[in-house]
């Protein structure tokens, strides 16, 4: 491996040629000559063009790392699809490089001083980055939504979590062509990884692990064959059939409003306790009905279980797998304690088995720290990371709530194990803990930038580096004084509408009464927490129904909304604006009607202002569904889709029978024309395409027209009165994230989730949801399941206003399945038939206009960017410079690799050639000494200053550097010298430039 100087300094300016720049070059150079603008990237990105930006709102997992020599800090730049590199020699990170990787990088891990692996969540890839050349040397394809990577075992292997696929893939770094070994994880959403001190064990935290709660059906008429069975109303139950059951002995707390009609029967959430008993919040035992001899009354098999696996434990040699259980609901980050070897996990646990809004307000969740001894399957201890909170009420004074930590996304330990650090993404702080998880800081918290996630500890310099996800900066914390001493920003293309509105979703200090929760506590990263909550209000008031009832297609009337609504599963916030009314029941006309929840649910002292509410609404309107993992690369429906984990339910085929492969294209036909709803209506009649949600049309005088928008621009998607089992009037939901709600299957003994489908999650599987209709065969059932899994919102037929059986549904904000796909070409594979076929397939999809295509390369020592101009021309990052795809591909070689990537249509110029979207292409800006990551810096306004070390003045050091530039042939030819001293833009540094430098140096005192 090259020396430190070669490795770092040559990757700072890969296109400048000549001798390695001096130390001052690292701070100034061509890109860094205007160092002030480098440090103001976050300010200058305010006006970024939103049209080319897609907001997937994907979370960081391990976004910050440091090379073993302690000289380079690496941070993922998620919205910019880059890896940012900082030099640490001074103790304060100095930006030195920005390396393009895949779409939505969420984790980075170094492998020695010269290599880093970057995990790309949307690209479904890992970028192997050479820190010597500053280029992607290889791209590894993974299963869906990779989240993290670590290295362990002898010989060393790489372990990659694929969160959506519930798999850990094992790779040989020495032979990437060998392909992965897949380890299926029997739990939902493995993400963060850690390795034991001896390198023999790999630990994977399960993000959506559940918390040992599940739902008992309770709303249906208690008749044979109805699913879910109404076990809550069963007279054999603990309450003799009283439904809703009381929650305070024989009474209700708070008491029922006597002016309301009787509440509807509803389901009930129960939690498994430490003895394996299933208890409700009134200390009543439902064990016999969940897993015992009466389990059939809840639709379960006797012996049914929800193991609540939170931590996967993998032997790095044998790849044998075990689990640790019963930690918390959302396991967000983990680290291994360096001396005890205990696995320490931070995350949150919902108190969702407690019923009714007034009993949960402001205190429905705990932020926790768990310790698991090596080899144990249960936690050694669980500690509340907010010990100052008693949870006796929904709010505390501001000074106390500011002590809280919320939404913890990072944990790291000092080498001696005496101190650990936990980052609170929601609370914008870091807390110091001891080995037991108790607070141990000099002050209760260390305040840092907005959205802290990643942590890197630099003990020799007494520094903790914190990556601030939402502020696009790195905070520098002095670990001796435990205070932030610097904040180093980097370029962020995120539009202002996102950065301004985000805080209203995540900020726990500003939006809650105890300082530890926010909307994102349940809607984690704008997605569901996979739990159901009973936020009923016994003392509440009825709400009059005022929405689009059945589009006037059906005879059944829609009923008013009772405040005792029963359990409801958390819904996604992806693409909800424009899909009003909101909530499962459609009882919120628009987002504005959620404003009271900041007080009623979060316990805050006040609601948002009207302006703040619009900021939140505008932000939520940007959140987009990612690529559907079941679609083909061209976004078409699969015709032979394996369906592991999906089973027949007994209505169609024997219960528990594994479903055969499904044909989603045939499933679409059945969905549209099968008349599966009593032989009279189609699935699409209610679940209109392209999203599966209800239509915004309704019938007036035999004609269909859009329901007029409400006062806040809200739509009126269809409500129906025959879907809900616990509430009569229910909104027809979108089906686009149904594939993310699997794991509950009452035909199986062991389950990964306790909640499934419909409003309360009591319908366990997609197959069950479909089987209640007129499905004729197991194959038809499999085809329909395959189609529902593949509903993304795009490339589906849409109805109109003339056919009442297939009306037009709302448009979708989703992502083409090909977006993110990558291929890296080098000297060994540039003629490989498989590589050529993949590139040609990518080109064909891009030519259709569905996506854009870009390339990143290292050519002639210069880092270059390109975007495809169909059919096969690549436009470079120099205006007017074109070349063919084949020519670019055939130039690829070792150290000069080319990576092709599909990007969202309309973003190819930004990702490919104009990073800051200022109209000047990146290489043109570098050639002219402008900053391609600063919209205020363009070739038209560059000023040559003569300040070679960036200290703001021209001094003797700059004169010495001028002499080196003018007399050293290699250095004199480099672009850095021209950016410092070529005042007359002659293309070289000479006597005329020296005369100008003298004037700057000595001014009027020049002889």
Instruction: Give the strand order, joined by hyphens, for the main sheet.
Output: 38-43-39-40-41-42
Mean pLDDT: 91
Q: Choose one word for the global shape.
A: globular
Largest sheet: 6 strands, antiparallel
Q: How many helical stretches?
A: 23
Amino- and carboxy-terminal Cα gap = 50 Å
Class derived from helix and strand content? alpha+beta
What share of residues are in beta strands?
15-25%
Number of DSSP strand runs: 43
- Helix fraction, binned, reads 10-25%
Low-confidence stretches: 1-48, 970-974
Radius of gyration: 29 Å
Summarize this entry quickly.
This protein is of the alpha+beta class and 1007 residues long. Helices cover 16% and strands 23% of the residues. The strands form 12 sheets. It has a 6-stranded antiparallel beta sheet.
Describe this structure in words.
The chain is an alpha+beta fold. Helices cover 16% and strands 23% of the residues. It contains 23 helices and 43 strands. The chain has a six-stranded antiparallel beta sheet with strand order 38-43-39-40-41-42. β13 and β14 form a beta hairpin. α12 crosses α15 and α20 runs antiparallel to α23. The protein is globular and about 100 Å long. The chain starts with a helix and ends in a 5-residue tail after the last helix. The N terminus is likely disordered.
């Amino acid at each position: 491996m090259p020396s430190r100087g070669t490795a770092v300094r040559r990757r700072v300016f890969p296109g400048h040629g000549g001798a390695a720049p001096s130390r001052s070059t690292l701070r100034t150079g061509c890109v860094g000559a205007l160092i002030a603008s480098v440090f103001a990237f976050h300010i200058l990105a305010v006006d970024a063009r939103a049209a080319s930006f897609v907001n997937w709102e994907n979370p960081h997992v391990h976004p910050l790392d440091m090379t073993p020599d302690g000289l380079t800090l690496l941070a993922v730049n998620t919205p910019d699809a880059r890896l940012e590199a900082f030099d640490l020699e001074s103790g304060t990170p100095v930006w030195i490089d920005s390396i393009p990787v895949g779409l939505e990088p969420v984790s980075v891990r170094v492998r020695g001083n010269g290599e880093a692996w970057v995990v790309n969540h949307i690209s479904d890839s890992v970028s192997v980055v050479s820190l010597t050349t500053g280029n992607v040397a290889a791209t590894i394809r993974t299963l869906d939504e990779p989240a993290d990577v670590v290295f362990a075992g002898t010989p060393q292997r790489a372990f990659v979590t694929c969160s959506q696929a519930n798999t850990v893939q094992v790779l040989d770094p020495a032979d990437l062509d060998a392909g992965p070994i897949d380890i299926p994880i029997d739990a939902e959403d493995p993400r963060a990884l850690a390795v034991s001190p001896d390198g023999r064990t790999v630990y994977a935290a399960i993000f959506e692990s559940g918390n040992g709660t599940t739902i008992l059906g309770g709303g249906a008429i208690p008749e044979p064959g109805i699913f879910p069975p109404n076990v809550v109303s069963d007279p054999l139950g603990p309450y003799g059939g009283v439904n809703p059951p009381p929650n305070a002995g024989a009474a209700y707390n708070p008491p029922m409003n006597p002016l309301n009609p009787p509440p509807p029967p509803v389901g009930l959430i129960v939690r498994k306790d430490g003895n394996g008993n299933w208890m409700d919040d009134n200390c009543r035992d439902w064990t016999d009905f969940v897993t015992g001899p009466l389990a059939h009354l809840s639709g379960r098999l006797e012996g049914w279980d929800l193991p609540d696996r939170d931590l996967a434990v993998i032997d790095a040699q044998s790849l044998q797998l075990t689990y640790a259980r019963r930690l918390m609901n959302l396991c967000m980050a983990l680290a291994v304690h360096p001396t005890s070897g205990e696995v320490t996990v931070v995350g949150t646990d919902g108190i969702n088995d407690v019923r009714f809004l007034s009993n949960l307000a402001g205190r429905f969740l705990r932020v926790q720290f768990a310790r698991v001894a090596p080899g144990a399957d249960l936690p050694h201890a669980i500690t509340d990371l907010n010990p100052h909170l008693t949870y006796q009420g929904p709010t505390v004074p501001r000074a106390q709530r500011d002590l809280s930590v919320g939404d913890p996304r990072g944990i790291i330990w000092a080498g001696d194990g005496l101190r650990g650090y936990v980052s609170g993404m929601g609370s914008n702080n870091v807390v110091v803990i001891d080995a037991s998880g108790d607070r141990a800081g000099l002050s209760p918290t260390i305040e840092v930038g907005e959205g802290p996630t990643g942590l890197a500890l630099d003990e020799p310099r007494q520094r903790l580096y914190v990556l601030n996800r939402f502020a696009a900066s790195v905070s520098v914390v002095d670990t001796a004084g435990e205070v932030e001493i610097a904040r180093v920003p980097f370029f962020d293309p995120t539009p202002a509408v996102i950065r301004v509105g985000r805080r209203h979703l995540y900020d726990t200090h500003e939006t809650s009464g105890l300082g530890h929760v926010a909307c994102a506590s349940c809607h984690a990263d704008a997605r569901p927490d996979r739990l159901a909550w009973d936020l009923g209000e016994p003392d509440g008031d009825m709400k009059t129904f005022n929405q689009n009832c059945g589009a006037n297609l059906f005879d059944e009337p829609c009923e008013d909304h009772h405040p005792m609504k029963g359990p409801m599963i958390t819904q996604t916030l992806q693409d909800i604006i424009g899909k009003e009314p909101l909530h499962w029941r459609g009882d919120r006309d628009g987002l504005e009607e959620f404003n009271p929840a900041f007080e009623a649910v979060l316990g805050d002292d006040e609601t948002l202002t009207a302006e703040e509410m619009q900021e939140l609404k505008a932000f939520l309107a940007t959140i987009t569904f990612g690529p559907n993992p079941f679609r083909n690369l061209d976004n078409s429906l699969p015709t032979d889709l394996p369906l592991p984990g999906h089973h027949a339910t007994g209505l169609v085929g024997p219960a528990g029978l594994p479903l055969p492969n499904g044909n989603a294209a045939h499933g679409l036909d059945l969905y549209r024309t099968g008349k599966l709803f009593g032989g009279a209506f189609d699935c699409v009649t209610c679940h209109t395409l392209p999203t599966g949600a209800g239509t915004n049309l309704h019938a007036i005088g035999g004609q269909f027209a859009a329901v007029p928008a409400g006062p806040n621009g809200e739509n009126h998607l269809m409500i129906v009165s025959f879907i809900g089992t616990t509430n009569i009037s229910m909104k027809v939901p979108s089906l686009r994230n149904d594939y993310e709600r699997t794991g509950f299957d009452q035909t199986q003994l062991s389950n990964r989730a306790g909640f499934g489908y419909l409003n309360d999650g009591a319908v366990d599987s997609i197959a069950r949801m479909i089987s209640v209709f007129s499905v004729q065969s197991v194959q038809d059932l499999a085809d329909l399941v395959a189609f529902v899994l593949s509903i993304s919102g795009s490339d589906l037929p849409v109805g109109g206003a003339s056919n009442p059986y297939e009306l037009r549904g709302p448009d979708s904000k989703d992502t083409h399945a090909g977006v993110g796909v990558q291929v890296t070409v080098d000297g060994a594979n540039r003629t490989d038939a498989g590589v050529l076929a993949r590139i040609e397939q990518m080109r064909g999809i891009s030519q259709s206009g569905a996506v854009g295509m870009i390339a990143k390369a290292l050519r002639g020592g210069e880092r270059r960017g390109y975007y495809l101009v169909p059919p096969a021309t690549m436009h470079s990052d120099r205006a007017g410079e074109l070349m063919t795809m084949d020519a670019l591909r055939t130039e690829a070689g070792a150290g000069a690799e080319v990576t092709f990537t599909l990007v969202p249509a309309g973003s190819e110029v930004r990702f490919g050639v104009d990073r800051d979207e200022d109209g000047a292409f990146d290489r043109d800006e570098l050639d002219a000494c402008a900053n391609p990551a600063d919209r205020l810096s363009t070739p038209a306004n560059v000023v040559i200053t003569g300040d070679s070390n960036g200290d703001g003045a021209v001094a003797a050091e700059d004169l010495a550097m001028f002499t080196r530039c003018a007399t050293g042939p290699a250095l004199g030819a480099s672009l850095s010298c021209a950016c410092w001293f070529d005042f007359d833009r002659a293309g070289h540094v000479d006597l005329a430039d020296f005369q100008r430098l003298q004037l700057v140096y000595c001014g009027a005192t020049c002889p």
